[in-house]
Amino acid sequence: MSRKAIDLSGIRFDRLTVLERAENSGKEPQWLCLCECGTRKIVMGSCLKNGNTRSCGCLSREITSRRSIKHGGVDTPEWRAWASMKSRCMNPGHKSFADYGGRGITVCERWELSFANFLADMGSRPSPGHQIDRVDNNKGYSPDNCRWAVRTVNMRNRRTTVRYGGKTMREIAEQTGENYYTLKTRARRQAWTRDT
Question: pTM of the entire structure?
Answer without folding.
Answer: 0.48
